[in-house]
Amino acid sequence: MEFLKSILITPFVDMVAAPDFLMQVLWEGLVSGVLYSLIALGFVLIFRSSRIFNFAQGIMVVFAALTLVGFHAMGIPAWISVIFTLGVMALLAITIERVVLRPLVGQPDIILFMATIGITLFLIGGGELIFGGETKRMITEDLGIPTGSVDFEPFGGLLILEQKDITAVLGAVALVIALLLFLNKTRMGRAIRALGDDHQAALSVGISLRTVWVMVWFIAGVIALMTGIVWGARAGVSFALEVIAYKALPVLMLGGLESITGAIVGGLAIGLLEKLFEIYWGQPLLGGGTETWFAFVLALIVLLFRPQGLFGEKIIERV
User: Fold this and answer.
1) Cβ contacts of 33 within 8 Å, gap of 6 or more
2) Residue percentage of the chain with pLDDT more than 70
């Protein structure tokens, strides 16, 4: 009886008793969820346009952040370094399309997936050779990202919002809005959507597969740079950032591998729920550490009842 009380009653009593702390937990979960959504968007865009699950998205986050810091270390101003880094990500997208993807057109999906693993290993080796393996400091202040905090006193308590987290959320929202406008209002955006909806029909009306591939890999690079800046500001820039991308996997399972809406909603849901579970159930009952596995268990439960994810399209095969 006491065990059931600790699961079903005590956590909610604690939430009501300290609403300011609950708001702090929700804020931390929201920030994490926004970043999970960003990483998941990179996966979704590439998969929709090419049916390739991009295993390299995580190392692209690290490589973009290291490139930015590397340019700045050469004495290049911060925002010029951002532009140069975007140029490197564009060059990387062109190289991947011409050297890796173009020769593999028509090959089974597993071959393309293995190719992205090869890209991952290449970027890891190249990154360590060029930048070294030590942790580097993100150029947060040089980019104009505030590092202070904003304090509130809701319900007579204390709520602390880190200004860099506020900047991260606002920047992510702006990036998602810009991406949606691009996909819905521009010719290239509509081509990307058409290719995702029906590959053969899109190709039959003259949409260039190669051009779309370069564009979506570049967009994935832009998302990787944004994510690398934000996570680097919180934890430094190192190859350990690659593991953050693995958190996008349950987001994709929860929201659906082809759904932009699913990536956004799934990321926010997992960010909020894993933080709530860690604080109110994980630490009191399990000693903590539940954030490492909670998202995967939640995604597994969803897949048992809806294999295509909450926002994925149900596949119906007729024989």
Assistant:
1) 267, 268, 269, 270, 271, 272
2) 94
